[in-house]
């Protein structure tokens, strides 16, 4: 039996990239079960590659990925999902030709159809649009659908890649409020640094495929010099 609680995510000395090209150069971080980590950094430093590596969509050259004490590194993407890893990619991979309800059905993974109500409780807007095609949804609704579908698989850890991209501020508020109600481990990549740091309890900054800082999110948010150094931005006060 694994000694770690379900949802504890331990990433250790991860080296990975695309084919022979190495992008991640020894990335390590730990998220305790139920913890929330923001993974931040400038464009192109390897944030998306980190998430893609955790779900098995890149070439891993070395290092380990443990979820609830179980090593995922050698498993297929679908086996990692079955082990509890949920993933909402930047591309919002919904089926545009299927209805909202059909899209959600694809996330049930054998659970009874009544479980769909969980999605409609989290995002009432999806309930109102359950008969609409995925391609008819606004950007915000598509993102809600993508998140809701991942959650229906009952992951113990959820990986979110820039969920707020392209969304109006009021839609960002709705989505972040829903995410804040989740009780699971969350790894969040997000360009809206202030929102990410408000959501997370800890933060890791990446630069050129390496972890260059990790610490409490609240401390980072108050440290303008740190943010400037690792992101090249100063948060508006
Ligand atoms: N499919 C791919 N094949 C080869 N190289 C890739 C591929 N995807 C990304 N890269 C390269 O990997 C590096 C890291 O990219 P990645 O998308 O992980 O960065 P990121 O930190 O998520 O950036 P952004 O904030 O712009 O999304 C970049 O140099 C990028 O060009």
From TrEMBL:
<dbReference type="InterPro" id="IPR052156">
    <property type="entry name" value="BCAA_Transport_ATP-bd_LivF"/>
</dbReference>
<comment type="similarity">
    <text>Belongs to the ABC transporter superfamily.</text>
</comment>
<dbReference type="InterPro" id="IPR003439">
    <property type="entry name" value="ABC_transporter-like_ATP-bd"/>
</dbReference>
<keyword id="KW-0067">ATP-binding</keyword>
<keyword id="KW-0547">Nucleotide-binding</keyword>
<dbReference type="InterPro" id="IPR003593">
    <property type="entry name" value="AAA+_ATPase"/>
</dbReference>
<keyword id="KW-0029">Amino-acid transport</keyword>
<keyword id="KW-0813">Transport</keyword>
<dbReference type="Pfam" id="PF00005">
    <property type="entry name" value="ABC_tran"/>
</dbReference>
<dbReference type="InterPro" id="IPR017871">
    <property type="entry name" value="ABC_transporter-like_CS"/>
</dbReference>
<dbReference type="InterPro" id="IPR027417">
    <property type="entry name" value="P-loop_NTPase"/>
</dbReference>
<dbReference type="GO" id="GO:0005524">
    <property type="term" value="F:ATP binding"/>
</dbReference>
<protein>
    <submittedName>
        <fullName>Branched-chain amino acid transport system ATP-binding protein</fullName>
    </submittedName>
</protein>
<feature type="domain" description="ABC transporter">
    <location>
        <begin position="9"/>
        <end position="233"/>
    </location>
</feature>
């Amino acid at each position: 039996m694994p000694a770690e609680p379900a949802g504890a995510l331990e990433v250790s000395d991860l080296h990975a990239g695309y084919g022979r090209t190495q992008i991640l150069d020894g990335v390590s971080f730990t998220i305790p079960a139920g913890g929330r980590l923001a993974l931040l950094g400038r464009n192109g430093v390897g944030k998306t590659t980190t998430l893609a590596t955790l779900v098995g969509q890149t070439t891993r050259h070395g290092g380990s990925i443990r979820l609830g004490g179980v090593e995922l590194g050698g498993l297929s993407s679908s086996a990692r999902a079955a082990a509890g890893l949920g993933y909402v990619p930047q591309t919002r991979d919904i089926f545009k030709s299927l209805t909202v309800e059909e899209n959600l059905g694809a996330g049930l993974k054998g659970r009874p159809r009544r479980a769909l109500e969980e999605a409609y409780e989290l995002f009432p807007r999806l309930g109102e649009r359950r008969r609409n095609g995925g391609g008819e949804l606004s950007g915000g609704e598509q993102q809600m659908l993508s998140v809701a579908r991942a959650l229906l698989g009952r992951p113990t850890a959820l990986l979110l890649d820039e969920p707020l991209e392209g969304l109006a501020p009021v839609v960002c508020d709705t989505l972040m409020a829903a995410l804040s109600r989740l009780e699971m481990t969350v790894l969040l990549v997000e360009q809206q640094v202030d929102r990410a740091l408000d959501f997370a309890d800890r933060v890791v900054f990446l630069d050129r495929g390496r972890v260059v800082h990790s610490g409490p999110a609240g401390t980072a948010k108050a440290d303008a010099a740190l943010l400037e150094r690792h992101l090249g931005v100063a948060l508006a006060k």
